[in-house]
Structure formats: C-alpha cells, structure tokens
Amino acid sequence: MWINKIKINNFRNYVQQEIKLEENINIFYGENAQGKTNIIEAIFLSSMGKSFRAKKDKEMINLNSQKSEIEIEYQKSDRDGKIKIELGNKKNIYMNGIKIKKLSELLGNVNIVIFTPDDIHILKGGPQNRRKFLDIMISQLKPNYMYHLNLYLKTIEQRNNYLRQIREERKDENLLEIWDEKLAEHANIIYQYREKYINKIKEKIKKIHNEITNHKEDIEIEYLSECKTKEEYLKLLKERRKLDIIKGYTTKGIHRDDFVIYINKKQIDIYGSQGQHRTAILSLKLAELNIVKEEIEESPILLLDDFMSELDEKRIKSFLEKIENTQVIITCTEKIKVENKKFLIYNVKEGNLEKQ
Questions:
Q1: Which of 59, 84, 129, 194 registers the highest number of CB atoms within 10 A of its CB?
Q2: β-strands 328-332, 25-29 pairing
Q3: Is 132 in contact with 139 (CB distance < 8 Å)?
Q4: 310-316: which pairs have CB atoms within 8 A and are 24 or more residues apart?
C-alpha cells in the first residue's frame, strides 16, 4: 500500500500544502523546527486517529486558525481510498466522504510502522513505552483490541474513583465486584492479543537480529503479566482490595504489563550498551514491519522520523537493504542519497516545501 497525496490546511506550521509522494522512498530534509515531523504526524493521525506526540488535538491546529484539516489519498492492492480529518471544537473523521462514528472504523485502513528518536525509550524507559508500542501495532491490525483496551481503561478510571469514595466516604466496598468483573473480562481479551503478538515478534526478531549483528548477538523477549486468565486477575484484585482502597487506585492489572528484552541472556535495559539498544530497537521495528506485512498481505507505510540521527551509516544501510516494496517517508537534517531505489526529495523550510 502507499499514499499518493497529502493535503494539509492550518496544521501545525503549515497553512496550505499539497504533497505528492513517490511509491517508494520520500525524503524530507531541512533544519530542525521547520515542519518535517509535522508531515509524519499528519500521516500517523490519518492512520491512528490521534497524534504520537500531542496530548490534545488543539495543539496540532495552526496558531492563527480555529480549525485544521488533513486529507490523504491512498492505494492498497484491492482498493483505493481517501481519509479526511477535521480538527476544531471536535474531531471529525471521514472515510471516502462518509463521516465515521467510531475510531475502530478508521484503524487498519492505512497501516503504518513508525520509527522516531524517542523509540529508543521503548527499551530504555518505563513499561508504559513498551505497552504503547504493542498497542499501536495490535490496534491497527485488530481494531477490536483498541475497543477492549479503551473499555478497560474507562473501567479502571471508574474503579479508582470508587476506591477513593470508599476511603473518604465509607462507601460499600462490596460494590467493587461490579468493576472487578468488567476489568477481568476485558483484561483477559487484551492479554490474549498481547501474548499472540509477542509470540509473533519472538518468531521474527531472532532471525532479524542475528543477521544485523552477524550472528554475534542472540535476542530473546519475555512477556510479563499477572493477568493470564480471568480467574487469576479476579483473585489478584480481591487480594489487593484493601491496599487499593488505601492507595486510591488499582495497583495490579493489564495496565501494568511489560516485556523484557535480553541480549545474550542479559537484560538490555540494565546491561545493554548504547549500540545494543539501537540495534535491538531496529530489530524490533523490522519485526513489526514483517508482522504487519504478513497480516495484511502487503507492505505497510514506513515512517522514519529523524531516524538517521540514532543510527550509524552501517545500521542505516542494513536497515534500508531489508526494506523491499515498501513506501518509506524519511525526515532528516541533511540531504541523503538512496542507492538502487526510486525516490523523491523535498527541502522543508518554515512550513514550505521545495521539490529538489
């Protein structure tokens, strides 16, 4: 699949811009803070319905405007389509001119794999970064996953509110069983999805990492969860009830899940070098790319936001060599050349594009 055109109106530092894209590689280069990442963000928004960096939609609207509009035209092996997103007092999403009612209707139409400098924190940072990685990958392949995840998070919020009411207003703690039952039901479905896709990553990443490191490093992944069955989680919630009431929040659950990566049997976030972290995240992203490709039976769009800054020349070359028949959107500070592939180059300056 590939995007052939992007139209942007009053989005970030862009007032009005139409961008035509090459089916293979597209490079946007320029100094920092000129608007390169905004193009990546617009594509991500069209795929996922939300930004990978803004917490609120209004942050993406041009400062001189009250509303913003993004439209992309894309092609897949079996169809073409158009997605339009309006940001203003509320967000409206249109698929081929028809307004959609649920976010799940958008997910899976434009499949993407994104690589940003912040992705190094998937391995270095806290568990929330690794859960976010899984959530983005799984939800665009299985929109039902996002449905259950959102319901789980809403139920957690309601349960936490009631925990505080028990503590402060002496409400009946037995009523917690209503939320516990709902939580356990959604948690079990979320766990099954996560376990399935962690296993898929395990299958792919070992071979990829071996090739990248010339068989010098062996990579392994361990999924950590205390919610493997509905019954297990209900028991845990009951055991932790008194502590949850004291703290005023739910201390255990699928929202605390994690996965750990080991290189040559050593935990990477504790013992890994900077180079090992970069190579491992590269392997993880390539595994994700292969899984999405296998699931949708065509290549997703690869978004590489300033990824050159995190990799040396050898890793960049190794990465690009493993990408075949894939549309790639690259942002970088310097103009780069790509060998043996078709590509377009745009210079980005203060929210304006100049085709090179």
A1: 194
A2: parallel
A3: no
A4: 310/117, 310/120, 310/278, 311/278, 311/282, 315/212, 315/278, 315/279, 315/282
Helices 127-141 and 176-212 cross at an angle (nearest 10°) of 90
pLDDT digits (tens, 9 = 90+) for 247-270: 999 999 999 999 999 999 999 989
CA distance 340 to 329: 17
Q: Tell me, what DSSP letter sits at residue 225?
A: -
Secondary structure of 123-139 in HEC code, one letter for each residue:
HHCCHHHHHHHHHHHHH
For residues 352 and 356, give the distance between their C-alpha atoms in angstroms, rounded to a whole number. Answer: 13
Q: Give residue for tokens 């409206």.
A: 92
- Write down the pLDDT at residue 114: 92
CB atoms within 10 A of CB 126: 10
13-51: string of b/e by CB count within 10 Å (b at 16+)?
A: ebeebebebbebbbbbbbeeebbbbbbbbbbbbbbbbeb
> Is the model's pLDDT at 313 over the cut of 80?
no
- Length of the chain as a residue count: 356
Q: pLDDT tier at 324 (50, 70, 90 boundaries)?
A: confident
The tally of CA atoms less than 13 A away on the side-chain side of residue 232 is 11
This model's pTM is above 0.90: no
Strand ranges of the sheet holding 112-115, from the earlier edge strand across to the other edge: 112-115, 301-305, 328-332, 25-29, 343-349, 352-355
98 HSE (CA, 13 A, CB side)? 7
323: nearest Cα among 348, 353, 280, 293: 293
